[in-house]
Write a structure and sequence with these properties.
Helix 1 crosses helix 2 and helix 3 packs across helix 10. Helix 7 links the parallel strand 9 and strand 10. The mean pLDDT is 85. The chain has ten helices and eleven strands. The protein is an alpha/beta fold and 369 residues long. An eight-stranded mixed β-sheet has the order 6-7-5-8-4-9-10-11, with helices on both faces. The radius of gyration is 24 Å and the shape is elongated.
Length: 369
Amino acid sequence: MASLQLYPKLITDALMNVRYPGTGKNIIEEGLLADDLRIDGMKVTFSLQFPKERDPFAASLVKACEMAILTYVSPEVEIKGNISTIFAPAKNQVDPENPLPGVKNIIAIHSGKGGVGKSTISANLAVALANLGYKVGLLDADIFGPSMPKMFNLEDASPVADENGKIVPEERYGVKLLSIGFFVNPEDATMWRGGMASNALRQLITEGAWGELDYFLIDLPPGTSDIHLTTIQTLGITGVVVVSTPQPVALADARKGISMFMNEKVNVPILGLVENMAWFTPAELPNNKYYIFGKDGCKNLAEELNVNLLGQIPIVQSIREGGDEGHPVACDGNTMTGLAFTQLAANVVSATNYRNENLAATQRVHTHK
């Protein structure tokens, strides 16, 4: 293999196997290969040039280019660490104080631990708000376990960029949606360090073409991490909806999350709690309630912390089926489960309006002083 003679076409042919996630075209068609390709024996260097000042796919494209050359040319090519990235000069920069100027309310959906149905609540709440006539966006910020593509039957979606270089959200059931799941292989684990995950999230927020929205919901990963701090630092969050089951082990973790948001250095309002899996009612016994995970755990915690109990959602087979089939039950607003999410949405609207009215009143007092 040492006698292999490298020449530019070998390299460009290999790079035609690398596709830009934003459009689906290969990077040669996309015009991302700069004109600085150099070959020195088995050493290859070149740059990828991007038309924007930042690009959420740059790092993954560099790795994909390295892999393509090592696979389609030769594993002996010296390419790792030899690909540079060039970005266009910054223009029309996002206002760091208000990166989403067209959005009225930004609501984070949080859970202290995984497995309590936070994403299910997020998906159905978004659809229910849209059914009430609001303009709704949903960001799947669960970088390591994105589930919204499946819950909205958008697993094959590939968002594209608009004429301004913004990522156009997918739209389904009246909800605009972006997820890191659109840009990674769903069968592969996302092995990113905290900084990479935070940067990806920040770019989905600030580089998404969200437009005008009444409600922008963010489905956060469970727990407390860099992702949560990035969200708080990037956006002026209106409030947080905390999801938990009524069992003590889930409530203990919910308390930690609430404590983080209520910390004086964070100071993000808690709009209220949602008790998921509150009880089980068999279809053949519609008047019976079985409290599998305990009774009124979130209700009691809400009373203790003096916050709203926004809703209690039962364990119903159709809710699970709706998520797995990509058709949230909130789409059917006249069913028992659909009505439960409609009421939850109405309660979130009320809590948001109350928070905004209090904030406006406080600001008027300070202005008069």
